[in-house]
Amino acid sequence: MKIAVINGQNHKGSTYHIGKQVADKLGGEVTEFFLPRDFGDFCVGCTQCFLKSETLCPHYERLKKITETMDEADVLIFTTPVYVYHCTGSMKAFIDHYGYRWMVHRPEQKMFTKQAVVISTAAGSGTKSANKDIADSMFFWGVPKTYRYGVNVRATNYSGVTDELKKKIDKKTTSIANKVKKNNGKVKAGLKTKGFFFIMRMIQKSGWNEADKNYWAERGWNGKNRPWKNT
User: Fold this and answer.
1) CB-count burial class (<10 Å; 0-12, 13-18, 19+) for 9
2) What's residue 230's pLDDT?
3) Taking burial as the number of CB atoms within 10 A of a residue's CB, which of 2, 81, 109, 158 is the most buried?
4) Residue 14: in which H helix or E strand, if any?
């Protein structure tokens, strides 16, 4: 099992430790990135990824290693502390660069067989909305199964988390890891994903965007081929 971990912060705080627990319990080959250390550029809104090719993005080469690692991974783990009720700015800037991969444009077929885990922590509240920031992209990328875990640690660092809460965290991360291992290689696109895909398919048939139209046609998605099948 290959695991790609994207940490939405440079420091190794509560969120990092919880994400590491999940990765360790999965026991696979882990490749880890920290934002903004490993990638910190903001999308400049040039629209080249949408209209022509993602290779024209001014940050394409700097992002390439992370993109390739995610594509080859079986499991994606995203961690983010809560910043003003949402994910970190670094994480938001990162996922902004993959708008071209939403199903409305040119989704990567490999995403339709992966699992994702989204983890957030807060000293108080906001984990639900922070997780949603990332989980939304997982759905629109085509990832069929995303586990969300948000925990109010009531501390600003992991050493300040109580032993009682750490036991609960340990139990929860074990549960998530067991589910991921059980479903590894077996996840399938659900009705919601398939339904949205077919809506996007109708849009692509209209050919409103040449780059997207050609991408879908080359993969036969306007015909009988589907990204969740080996075609």
Assistant:
1) buried
2) 67
3) 81
4) helix 14-26
Torsion of CA 218, 222, 228, 229, to 10 degrees: -70
Confidence of residue 206 (pLDDT cuts 50, 70, 90): confident
Residue 209: other Cβ atoms inside 10 A: 18
Torsion angles phi and psi, residue 207, rounded to 5: 70, 35
pLDDT digits (tens, 9 = 90+) for 112-161: 999 999 999 999 899 999 999 999 999 999 999 999 999 999 998 899 99
What would the mean pLDDT of 159-181 be, rounded to a whole number?
97
pTM of the model: 0.96
- Burial tier of 40 (Cβ tally within 10 Å: 0-12, 13-18, 19+): middle
How many other CB atoms are found less than 10 A from the CB of residue 174?
Answer: 13
Q: How far apart are CA 31 and CA 10, in angstroms?
A: 15
Q: What angle do CA 109, 214, 41 make, to 5 degrees?
A: 60
